[in-house]
Specification:
- By secondary structure, the protein is of the alpha/beta class.
- It has 2 domains: about 70 residues, ACT domain (Alpha-Beta Plaits, 2-Layer Sandwich); about 220 residues, Rossmann fold, CATH 3.40.50.1000.
- Helix content is about 40%, strand content about 25%.
- The protein contains 12 helices and 11 strands.
- Strands 8-7-6-5-9-10-11 form a 7-stranded mixed β-sheet, with helices on both faces.
- It starts with a strand and ends with a helix.
- It binds magnesium ion (MG).
- The site of magnesium ion has 7 residues, from loops.
Length: about 300
């Protein structure tokens, strides 16, 4: 059972790995703050025992520890599918639109209901969209100047394209901004929800049209994009911060929870809690020198 354990600590202090049951065959420094340990576990129980210690170790040493099977998909990802809000960009677009339309309190109340499991994502999206009836269809254009990309988003996408990856954004947000993000970052695909516009083209009607991009649809889109490109989902990685990204992480061979909610961190294959998306390249196995070469 060959695994790679990627360690991204904020300090150079390292735990006593052997004492923690990590049978290290080889250690490679990817940078002065990131190491990979090649490890071979005796059985599934040994993997599970080490995996169970990861949250505590991460907290104690201040950083991220990621255990992944060392197979032919390591350093060989073909498809990367990103969530948009709080992943590629730093904001939640629905909150920005709510502020624009001055319905923040009402939108927050619906978000709260959804977070407590009182209503599902589709219902919460429909309810939030209905609050936007009558606002100018130009809202998305107005929001673009305020969108802040996550640090490292442009560089990561550029590096992944150099590596030959197909890139996609699948968002529970809205098509006009997802398409814009796709263009800005040089992605290949953008899928999101469509808010209906009045027949005269002036205002939002408050209705959502077409398939709603929820957790299951995100996973379905990942499989669809993989199939269209003749790729196995095993060679895909999904990156997101929300509970509705977990299904696509499971559909992909691998997943990274980026500065994610605690429940998502617990359930995702890997966690990354650093300020820059570029650090995803460490988890995918690329050293600082290789990253510089990819971005040169
Ligand atoms: Mg998100």
């Amino acid at each position: 059972m060959d695994y790679t354990c990627t360690v991204l600590f904020r300090t150079s202090q390292q735990p006593d790995w052997a004492a923690l049951g990590l049978p290290i065959a080889r250690t490679t420094a990817l940078s002065d703050r990131c190491y990979t340990h090649d490890v071979t576990f005796a059985d599934d129980a040994a993997v599970a025992a080490f995996r169970a210690q990861i949250p505590e170790l991460s907290a104690a040493y201040g950083g991220d520890i990621c255990l992944q099977a060392r197979n032919d998909t390591y350093r060989n990802k073909k498809l990367v599918v990103f969530d948009m809000d709080s992943t590629l960009i730093q904001q939640e677009v629905i909150d920005m639109i709510a502020a624009y339309a001055d319905v923040e309190d009402k939108v927050s109340a619906i978000t709260e209901l959804a977070m407590n499991g009182k209503i599902d994502f589709n219902e919460s999206l429909r309810r939030r969209a209905s609050l936007l009836a009558g606002i100018p269809a130009t809202v998305f254009e107005s929001l673009k100047p305020d969108i802040r990309f996550t640090p490292g988003a442009h560089e990561l996408c550029r590096a992944l394209k150099k590596l030959g990856c197909t890139l996609a954004v699948v968002s529970g947000g809205f098509v006009p901004l997802a398409r814009w993000v796709k263009a800005e970052l040089g992605l290949d695909y953008a899928y999101a929800n469509t808010l209906e516009i009045s027949p005269d083209g002036t205002v939002l009607t408050g209705q959502v049209v077409g398939d709603i991009v929820n957790a299951d649809r995100k996973a379905q889109l990942l499989r669809q994009i993989a199939a269209e490109n003749g790729l196995s989902p095993e060679h895909a990685v999904a990156i997101g911060d929300g509970a509705n990204d977990l299904v696509m992480m499971a559909a992909a061979g691998f997943g990274v929870a980026f500065n994610a909610k605690p429940i998502v961190q617990q359930k995702a294959p890997a966690r990354l809690n650093t300020p820059t998306l570029l650090d995803v390249l460490y988890i995918l196995g690329y050293s600082a020198d290789e990253q510089r070469a990819l971005l040169a």
